Amino acid sequence: MPSTYAGIGVSAGVAVGPVARVHGPVLPPRDGAPVDVTVETGRAVDAFEAVGGELEALASRAGASGAVLVRQARIARDPSLTALAGQLVSTGRAAPRAAWEAFAAYRDMRAADPMRAVPDRAELDDIRDRVVARLLGEPAPGIPDPGQPFVLVARDLSPAVTAGLDPHRVLGIVTERGGPTSHTAVLAKSLGIPAVVACPGVASLRSGQRVMVDGGVGEVTADPDSDTLGAAVPVPEPTAEVVQGPGRTRDGRPVRLLAAVGGVGDAGEALANGAEGVGVFRTEFAFLDRDEPPTVAEQSAAYREVFDAFGTREVTVRTLDIGADKPAPYVRLGDQPNPALGVRGLRVARRHVELLTDQLTAIAMASRGSKTPVRVMAPMVATTAEAAWFAAQCREHGIATAGVMVEVPAAALRAADMLRVVDFVSVGSNDLAQYTFATDRADGELADLLDPWQPAFLDLVATVLRAGAVAGRPVTVCGEAPSDPMLALVLVGLGAGALSMTARVLPDVRATLARHSYDDCVRYATAAVSADGPSEARARVRDALDRT
Ligand code: PEP
Ligand code: MG
Predict the structure, then answer these.
(1) Which pLDDT tens digit goes with each residue over 417-438?
(2) What predicted TM-score, i.e. pTM, was given to this entire model?
(3) N or C: lower Cβ tally within 10 Å for the chain?
(4) Residue 235, pLDDT score
(5) How far is CA 132 from each of CA 24, 65, 87, 100, rounded to the nearest angstrom?
(6) Where are the beta strands (DSSP E) in 283-389?
(7) Nearest CA to ligand 1 atom 6
(8) What is the pLDDT of residues 192-237, one digit of tens each?
């Protein structure tokens, strides 16, 4: 009987292939018997040098995105780091333990040096793990290369690593940790790689072992037999009809169906699936792996490519949303006790206003002479004062349509005030759920609290939509919530006139919408918000659908 592991399916589809594990994290090595100082020092020096070479080789293969690796190679070869390891060996530590401790000492040393930037903790940890793994004779941490397509199994994956995955090589993704709306999940979905997160027990899967990943159901099966494989072949929905044209309800009420994109690479699928525009262009995804901030010219070129791809369809550009689970090496935010509640999104401009002004300059440059209607919005806005400041920055840069994302409950509660100072708002359902329920969206253990069917969440969305209707200003709902066709009906019933989602689900949502009238949607919305919890909300709407 094949063993099955249950997790949260975050990117639908079935993949079958051999496991390749992301190794690590490397555990702190224990110190053992007395050491031969000369031998251990030599081993440590060789390991640092070898890791420097390995990172350099990886950087040369990575091309433009290899800046982080170049920087890491430089650190691995920093003589002061090897000297620290040597000193620790001379006090009696074996090479692995000395290397481990040397990195902590190195970090402190760099933090105390006002002339040099403090290296990013994750980057430093990665070099340390490579050096220590080499000294212990263990496999190097990082994305494996087994020479054939594989199912990637990891404890967790960062958005930067996920963004770089090649869907031709990576058949499926399975992580022990991670939440349903984490940026890693969002990226896996946009790459079209079936993925299951928050899947305990998969640590016991062996490299090379055949597994089946069902990203719809949220299950991973080890050594699947032919019955299991046969049962997973998707049966086409009998009612799945293809509906073309702009989104509208059965009685003709327009609902703009927009795509979420991370760059021009996502445009093809969005347009093929009839996206009426871009609901959120996550600009940070284009530059996550950078050592230095992208120049105005680089940014402008990247934005113009997206505008040209969408032609006369509206594109809403979201300014950089860096911080929390999306660190970017070129923005040094330092250690924050709780990054999701810290300097993130628009708050980064408090420290580095030039990042925002450069970006607005680049957006204005890219839109000059373009036929694309461009709107610009800021992430992680909490107060009307922040919204007003952002709108003023946009206007100063010649950007006519400025808005903000409603991701923090404070912004939802004061949406009417926000709409007095900006031209539009967009509900970021992923973060609004995270901040409403004080639940980290990267934490799969608490996924029930992030459920967008939670009535309290729907109440806040309704507040924003009502404020939009009163002000006569547009409100979009974006994030993962509108990707659920049944919830999309509820959102329309609450008043949403525009929904943004992963391009892949646009046809499904369009077809569902076309089967229900606006009055039906209002009934579903009333049923959902009057429920006591998400299960009841779903059940009530399902019931109402059956009776329609
Ligand atoms: C959201 O929070 O819903 C959103 C669209 O932004 P992101 O997922 O990039 O944080
Ligand atoms: Mg967000």
Answers:
(1) 999 999 999 999 999 999 999 9
(2) 0.81
(3) N
(4) 54
(5) 11, 25, 17, 7
(6) 314-318, 374-378
(7) 428
(8) 899 999 999 999 999 999 999 999 999 999 999 988 888 776 655 5
Reduce the DSSP state of residue 121 to 3 states and report it: helix
Q: Is 101 helix (H, G, I), strand (E, B) or coil?
A: helix
Nearest to 264 by CA among 286, 280, 248: 286
Q: DSSP string covering 450-470, please?
A: G-TT-HHHHHHHHHHHHHHHH
Over the chain, what is the mean pLDDT? 91
State the ligand closest to the CA atom of 259.
Answer: 1
Structure confidence by residue, pLDDT tens digits, 342-395:
999 999 999 999 999 999 999 999 999 999 999 999 999 999 999 999 999 999
Question: How do beta strands 210-214 and 195-197 pair?
Answer: unpaired
Catalytic residue at 478? yes
Q: If you measure from the C-alpha of residue 221 to the centroid of ligand 2, how many angstroms do you get, rounded to a whole number?
A: 32
Q: How many angstroms separate the CA atoms of 114 and 511, rounded?
A: 59
Secondary-structure breakdown of the chain: helix, strand, coil percentages, each rounded to the nearest 5: 50, 15, 35
Structural tokens at position 397: 């840069």
Q: Is 183 considered catalytic here?
A: yes
Q: Ligand 1, residue 260: give the atom nearest the CA.
A: 5
Give the pocket of ligand 1 (CB within 6 Å): 186, 280, 282, 321, 407, 428-431, 478-479
- Whole-number Å distance between alpha carbons of 386 and 346: 8
The Cα–Cα gap between 405 and 498 comes to: 14
Residues ≥6 apart with Cβ < 8 Å to 356: 319, 320, 346, 348, 349, 393
